[in-house]
């Protein structure tokens, strides 16, 4: 009897101990689950905070600044022959030959056409940074060839090499700035491309001012362009590679490291997630060349290409290449007038940079092309036989100065 009672008591104790342990385990699991839920909730809140907060723009800013040296060089070489063209033709023995002068100007654009054909392939093949360096190389060599040219053939060869770098650079810089910039400043950083082009044009116009007083100054104008070109090539050694390009090459760890340099540690996972989503969408939405010509994307391609063509045909290149000739024929000192053209172009670029994200590209283009049409109408009126000498002078100079202020005249980079 006592033995049975002891066994029952022992069994009870064992059951009670087991039940008590079970109760403690349940309580522990509940506590741990509650703690995990709180930690997950806190983590979720932190993630939401990270998503809603913007990454520091200062991390990507130096990389964008170095990249915009390329459009600076583009603008510089567009305007470098404006003022010195007369001196170049005289020193190289083709003074008064309009065809030769036109070749000195247009050969650069021919080289740019060749370079642009290979820009996408090079950027995708060797990466954005090396593409910038390959862009700078012909600009250094070409500028040196032009600066030391003794004949028109040497000048044309140098301009052709420089043009190849000019054609390679703009597509790469637009791609690079888009891929390394935080979304909330991407439009502003994109405007830096146009601002760099305007600063390059201004630099070329101001550097060319002493060309009439100093013999052979046009050679210095070409030599000076090798400095920013070499700076671009060297600066890209220290800049971040595009995380988008690294990810497409299967270098995920390197892409994360570059995102950390550009956006900060807290934004890496979110940026990688968006990049992965975009990459999957690109794989699913493969576009054939035929679709660009007559398929679903034809309308977008047609509108974009037409805008590029109209922008070029509107006369902006004539303004920057031959403004000195226009002002000379109007009796205006070209040194002062070219400086005003550079300033007017810079003002228009600043307006575009401020208004682009507020008003949108379409509104700016519409008003810009309208203003450019008015400017061209003023210059046509100045050249007509109905305008007297004084009025013709004012109209010609005024129309020439008004034209570069409209952002649409140079919105091709954006």
UniProtKB/TrEMBL annotation:
Record keywords: Membrane, Sugar transport, Transmembrane, Transmembrane helix, Transport
Compartment list: Membrane
Organism superkingdom: Eukaryota
Pfam family, one: Sugar_tr
Regions crossing the membrane: 59-78, 98-119, 131-149, 155-177, 189-211, 217-239, 300-324, 336-356, 363-382
Membrane-related topology note: Multi-pass membrane protein
Residue ranges of domain Major facilitator superfamily (MFS) profile in the record: 63-414
Stretches the record annotates as Disordered: 1-21
PANTHER family: FACILITATED GLUCOSE TRANSPORTER PROTEIN 1 (PTHR23503:SF8), SOLUTE CARRIER FAMILY 2 (PTHR23503)
Name of the protein: Probable plastidic glucose transporter 2 isoform X2
Protein's organism: Ziziphus jujuba
Taxonomy of the source species: Eukaryota, Viridiplantae, Streptophyta, Embryophyta, Tracheophyta
Originating gene: LOC107431794
